[in-house]
Every structure is written in structure tokens, then in C-alpha cells.
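Thread: Modeling a multi-component assembly for a lab meeting

Hi all, long-time lurker, first post. My supervisor asked me to bring a structural picture of a complex we are working on to next week's group meeting, and I have zero experience with this. I have the sequence lines for every component (260 residues in total). Could someone generate the structure of the whole assembly? Inputs are pasted exactly as I received them:
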Amino acid sequence: MVTVAVYNLKGGVGKTSAAVNLAFLAARDGYRTILWDLDPQGGATYLLRGRPKVKGGARALITRSGGLEQRMRGTEFDNLDLLPADRSYRAMDLVLDRASHSTRRLGDQLRPLAGRYDLVLLDCPPSASLVSQAALRAARLVLIPVIPATLSWRTLDQVTGLVKELKAPRPALLPFLSLVDRRRRLHRDVAEQLRARLPSLARAAIPISSAVEQMGPRRTPVHTFAAGTPAALAYQDLWAEVAEMALPGHGGVSEPRPPG
Ligand SMILES: Nc1ncnc2c1ncn2[C@@H]1O[C@H](COP(=O)(O)OP(=O)(O)O)[C@@H](O)[C@H]1O
Ligand SMILES: [Mg+2]
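Re: Modeling a multi-component assembly
Sure thing. I ran the full set together rather than chain by chain. Output:
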């Protein structure tokens, strides 16, 4: 079982949209997938029509063995299960702070599920909290959405810094462009700069798209209602790159489309 985190210190950069769509694509390719919504705002839970769960709260989840299994929920999609967020996640930092080996906890809680699932996607809150540190530590790969318009190298440096503070083995990083507007000069320039200066940047870039926005009111992954749109295809390309990096020897994943 491989864990992939979607992370950025900033909110509104497309983390949750990416986590939901990639989880959907992974499940569709036959990977038994968990989407763990770690953000108390519960965006991923909402998009997958999950019910926020309160019983036992963050404490039980983190400190009790088997805490995750009890909270696992099916979705309407084969192979895709959801660990819904709830408001008690706001207290997760405090719970972790009081627990020993706090940043190891998420990974420890996931371990018993390893035989039953192939992939865990962590939708992280936009913070440098203990929850995020624990998520980064549990991950083999960290996806970092970056919007060209608001790109600050400092944010990327901060994420890299957080990862460097972790004990080895550290996760690989895969930054990708998000909410890209090709009509804007600034976006094209920044995208080029990033490609030149950041060799690890994903080939796939997610364009601004009303189909992605529509995921909110429709509460479903973009591929279920707008599969042929450029954004849906870009998520497929991104998924192919993620699978290549995180699931070596993966099969059944569509090849990335040729550029252009
Ligand atoms: N490619 C996109 N095109 C248009 N709107 C998008 C796109 N990606 C995300 N959004 C919208 O931007 C907002 C923030 O996206 P979200 O995925 O929740 O980001 P985060 O999890 O980083 O806060 C949401 O309203 C979402 O619908
Ligand atoms: Mg989010």
C-alpha cells in the first residue's frame, strides 16, 4: 500500500479537487483506494457525498488501534473508500501534540490496512501543523499544486523545508501547475520559469475549467460528467505520472497523451 499526500501551505490551490479526481482515476484503474480527508473543512468528504462523522472524534482515530477501520466509508464508486473529515479534526493537532511519536501516528494507523488497499490519498489541510507533518511523513510521494498567478518560491521552499526536516526515508515531491489560464501572459511566463527551474515539475498541468468548478454543485469527480474536457484529461495525465512514480510495476494505467 502506497501513501500519496496532496499538500500545499496555501488554500484554494486545487488540492482537494486533485485528491478527489486522482482517487477516482486510481479506483477506476482497479487500485483499491482510500481517500483520507484530513481537512476539518471536509471538502473531499463533501465532494464524495460522505457524511461527516463525529463519534469518537479525532482522538479515537489517532490513538485507538483499529480507529480507521471503524470510520471507513464506501463511496458510490467501486474500489474507492473514504475516511471522512469532521469538525473534530480541528482538534487533531492537540491530540497529536499530546501523543507520543506524534508525526508517526498517521502512518502507524494506516499500516493495518495495508493488505486490503493499494493506495491512500491524503487530502491535507493548508497548514504546517502536526497533522500536515504527520501526513508528509506517512507519504511516499507528495503532490504540490502550484498556481502560476500566486506562485511564491517561498511557499515551495517552505514545503521542501518541511520535508527536509522529516526523518529518512523522505517522500518524493511532485509539484504540478494548477488553475492554469493559458490566455494570461503571466501564467505562461511563470509556467515557463517553473519548467526551467524545477526539473521535478509534473508534465501535466491542470487548466482553469468550469467543469472542475462544477464538481462542487454536482458533488462528484469531474470524470463522471465531463470526461472529455481538457481538465479531465490533464488529471488523467497527472494520474499516469503519479502511478509511474508511486506504484512501480503498475498496470492498466493509460499512457500520458503526447504533448500538444
Ligand atoms: N482547475 C480548476 N478550474 C477551476 N476551478 C478550480 C480548479 N481547481 C479548483 N478549482 C476551484 O477552486 C476552489 C479551491 O479548490 P480546492 O480544490 O478546494 O483547493 P484547496 O483544496 O487547495 O483549497 C474550489 O472552489 C474549486 O472548485
Ligand atoms: Mg482542500
